[in-house]
Amino acid sequence: MLATAxxxxxxxxxxxxxxxxxxxxxxxxxxxxxxxxxxxxxxxYAGTVPPxxxxxxxxxxxxxxxxxxxxxxxxxxxxxxxxxxxxxxxxAALTKNPRFTRELAGKAGKNDVILxxxxxxxRSAAAAEAATRAGFLRVFNVLEGFEGEITPDGQRGATxxxxxxxxPWVQD
Length: 172
Hints:
With 172 residues, the chain is α/β, with parallel strands linked by helices. The protein has helices spanning 9-15, 27-41, 51-59, 71-77, 100-105, 122-133, and strands spanning 47-49, 64-67, 89-90, 95-96, 113-117, 138-142. A hairpin with a 4-residue loop joins strand 3 and strand 4.
């Protein structure tokens, strides 16, 4: 794992109230279950991880959590403390970032366990597929994303996502 790409999740975790205690979690079991989901669903990347398990992996230093939303979402909606941003798409038109995999390589190595998170889990799935095609071997999508699916009344954050589950986040 690249030391420069890994935020100080251990100190973040001590400041946050969370039901996840990294030493009580089977980290290899989380990754094995994530990989099994990928096989069952025929996914073109390493697997999928629920938010609590993504946090456990990140806190333990077993994975690098990377946000792939737009700069505006990251800044104004909120983000996981210490998590780097590598935009999959940018701007209101959500234009694909042609430098995505090169920028990702600046945050994580091709053999690192990488967890990608977006708003709902859809863009991060596309980003995980692109990263895998570019040679990143262990890229996982964080299920539900940061805000979860949109409800019938047009709201996010009410039925799933990082914030919904009470995991640590900050807003600029």
